[in-house]
Specification:
The complex is a heterodimer of chains A (104) and B (151).
Chain A (H helix, E strand, L loop, with lengths): L1 E2 L10 E15 L8 H7 E3 L1 H25 L3 E13 L2 E13 L1
Chain B lengths: L1 H37 L4 E2 L10 E16 H13 L4 H25 L3 E12 L3 E13 L2 H5 L1
Parallel strand pairs in B: 1-3
Antiparallel strand pairs in B: 2-4, 3-4
The chains are: A alpha+beta (104), B alpha+beta (151).
């Protein structure tokens, strides 16, 4: 599966379009992921536990989008975009979408 | 007595936030500048690309960071919030987050052997009471060798 944010795949011709494919996950933002979160709020700096949490969440959304594309018989997704939105206090949704295509 | 203890703790947190916060920020900026030089060879572009002929392989690359402000800056910001206006403490926090996430994306791209990153997009969200998250993503591409182009 080739994933791009551009509208094509370099060196390859798009044979057919399957339309939009999406994937999303909703995660709790209050998750004792980083034991030092309290400390970091005093001295500032990166919260690695939360960086990892957000990465996992994005990967999951991407995987779900890819799974949808595979089902349609696509071998690439172009024009991928990500969006994050607050669903409820303390809950964040990560959403990935793009156009499933088949390339040569 | 208890009020005195709380005031003492508040002052300790404020001083710790001020000193650790600013030294950590300085250190972070230093490392950002160093890595920006190191990865300057990888051009990042945000505009729409129509001509894909100079490129060969493509891969989605991402980079993200969750970063928190310090106690001192949070306190100053909460005071400034009463009056309105610019919150420069948070401006530098967002700036650090954006530059860091772009650098991580570039690091991932360079590991793969990319020459350029096309259509880069940036996104940020607030994780309440934790910090801010910045996410950068784009399409890493390899440039075609000039011999291929002439053939």
């Amino acid at each position: 599966m080739i994933l791009t944010t551009i509208e094509a795949v370099p060196e390859k011709k798009i044979i057919s379009h399957f339309g939009i494919v999406t994937g999303s996950t909703v995660r709790s933002k209050h998750f004792g992921r980083d034991l030092f979160a309290g400390l970091k709020n005093i001295i500032g700096g990166e919260l690695k536990g939360y960086t990892e949490l957000m990465e996992e969440t994005r990967d999951e959304a991407t995987e779900r989008m890819v799974a949808q594309a595979v089902k349609l018989g696509a071998n690439a997704i172009v024009g991928i975009r990500y969006a994050t939105s607050d669903v409820a206090p303390g809950a964040a949704e990560v959403f990935a979408y793009g156009t499933a295509v088949k390339v040569e | 007595m208890e009020a005195l203890f709380q005031l003492g703790l508040f002052i300790i947190l404020l001083t710790a936030g001020f000193f650790f916060g600013s030294s950590r920020e300085k250190k972070h900026y230093k490392s950002i500048l160093e890595r920006q030089k190191k990865y300057a060879v990888i051009a990042t572009r945000s505009e729409k690309i129509r001509d894909f002929s100079p490129y060969s392989d493509a891969m989605l690359v991402t980079g993200s960071v969750v970063i928190a402000s310090d106690y001192f800056k949070n306190f100053v910001a909460s005071i400034k919030n009463l009056f309105g206006g610019r919150l420069n403490g948070f401006e530098s926090l967002m700036d650090r987050g954006r530059r860091e996430s772009i650098l991580r994306m570039k690091e991932n791209a360079s590991r793969w052997g990319a020459d350029e990153i096309l259509e880069v997009r940036l996104e940020s969200s607030a994780l309440d009471a934790i910090g801010i998250e910045v996410f950068a993503y784009g399409t890493a591409v390899k440039k075609r060798k000039s011999s291929d182009a002439s053939a």
